[in-house]
Amino acid sequence: MNRYLNRLLNVMLDRKLKRAALLFCLTVLVAACAHAAYTNRNQLLLISEGQEMQLGLQASNDVLKKEKESHDQMQVERVKRIGRRIAVAANKPEYKWEFHLIEKNEVNAFCLPGGKVFVYTGILNLATSNDELAAVMGHEIAHALERHGGERMSTALMLQFGGQAASVALGAGTSPAVGQVFSQAYGVGAQVGVLLPHSRTQESEADEVGMIIAAKAGYEPSGALTLWRKMDAYQKSKGQSTPAFLSTHPASQQRIADIQAKMGAIRAQYFQPHYLN
Ligand SMILES: [Zn+2]
């Protein structure tokens, strides 16, 4: 009797495992259908772009409630002009682009899904030339175009909910769990400080795609090189206390070398010089 019970248990367990494995494979298969724009890299994406954009809009409203916009009209116009040009080059008509300059002495910039771009006045001390500011904005916009936040949210959901991650993700927008991983992925809202880091793959993808769209918009790709050299010097000057932006965007020698290696080909293929930038 015991032997039969054991066999029955084994069969049941086996079925359960197979079902779990099947569910996992299906999730991965569906997710694997997503490919990153420009680079065609396979992505694990459990939430739709529409859901991401809805969350991006909510977060953008929260940021605008919390932070103060700059009154320096010259710099505000500069950020908007560079942003609009990059947005045209990015060719993403479903985005409702906005460019905000936040009055805060913090090295920070980000782009929320849906095209809400925030630049902090503290970063303008490093991004002094228009080419350098275009490199920052191009990089952040590239993170959104490549849906890196959605990818980080999906990974976090998989780690937290395993096989149920897909069904949790379907409730995006209403589910508190999704709201929380969104805040972590973007470092906004109540979760500031527990930001999920960008992967090295995402960082180098954002560097490459950022340089491409900035070059198409008329900005010299070498702006990325001088910018990240300054970021490196700034990071070293800070010693142990790495600013939040640099903890997710490390200014490593490897990054600088990669940018240098890609710059020539990107300039030759995409750079459209403007007389006035
Ligand atoms: Zn980045």
Chain-wise SSE layout:
Blueprint: H1 2-32, E1 34-35, E2 42-43, H2 49-66, H3 73-90, E3 98-102, E4 109-112, E5 116-120, H4 130-145, H5 148-161, H6 165-170, H7 176-186, H8 200-216, H9 222-238, H10 244-248, H11 253-270
Parallel strand pairs: 3-5
Antiparallel strand pairs: 1-2, 4-5
Bound molecules: zinc ion.
Residues 139, 143, 198, 203, 206, 249 line the site of zinc ion.
Description:
With 277 residues, the chain is mainly alpha-helical. The chain contains 11 helices and 5 strands, in the order H-E-E-H-H-E-E-E-H-H-H-H-H-H-H-H. Strands 3-5-4 form a 3-stranded mixed sheet. The radius of gyration is 21 Å and the shape is globular. It binds zinc ion. Residues 139, 143, 198, 203, 206, 249 line the site of zinc ion.
Kindly report how far apart the N and C termini lie: 84 Å
Rounded to an integer, what's the Rg over CA atoms? 21 Å
Q: Could you spell the SSE succession in H and E letters?
A: HEEHHEEEHHHHHHHH
| Number of beta-strand segments | 5
Q: Which spans of ≥5 residues are poorly predicted at pLDDT below 50?
A: 190-194
Bound molecules: zinc ion
Give the biggest sheet.
Answer: 3 strands, mixed
Share of residues in strands: 5-15%
Number of helices: 11
What share of the residues lie within helices? Answer: 55-70%
Strand order of the largest sheet: 3-5-4
Give the count of structural domains: 1
Assign an overall shape: globular
Structural class: mainly alpha
Q: What's the average pLDDT?
A: 84
